[in-house]
User: Which sequence fits this backbone?
């Protein structure tokens, strides 16, 4: 399991810088999940990918040094005022929140996205 966590301090900076950090982190691995360790839907999405044979990189925002800034940036990107987690990126591209990931899975479009990103080879 790859879980990315950080120290306990919180750094505040501009949302634009945090959006850039999200883009950078999302592009570094085939599947990236921005999550919170206490979020049951985050855990469910993580399990969905792992049960498909995917090893996602998970950023636990409640344990990440700039997690609050990243969470605000994700809310901005998604156009949401609520806590946006989980947020999934595949191949560096935004898939979305739980509803969007599940809709892709049900529609049969999730596996092709994962294959194109090199996350699975089936």
Assistant:
């Amino acid at each position: 399991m790859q879980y990315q966590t950080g120290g306990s301090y919180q750094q505040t900076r501009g949302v634009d810088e945090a959006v850039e950090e999200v883009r950078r982190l999302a592009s570094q691995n085939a599947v990236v999940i921005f999550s919170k360790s206490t979020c049951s839907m985050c855990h469910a999405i993580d399990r969905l990918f792992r049960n498909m044979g995917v090893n996602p990189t998970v950023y636990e925002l409640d344990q990440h040094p700039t997690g609050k800034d990243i969470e605000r940036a994700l809310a901005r990107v998604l156009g949401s005022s609520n806590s946006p987690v989980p947020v999934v990126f595949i191949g560096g591209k935004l898939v979305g929140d739980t509803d969007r990931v599940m809709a892709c899975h049900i529609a049969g479009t999730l596996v092709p996205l994962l294959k194109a990103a090199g996350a699975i080879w089936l």
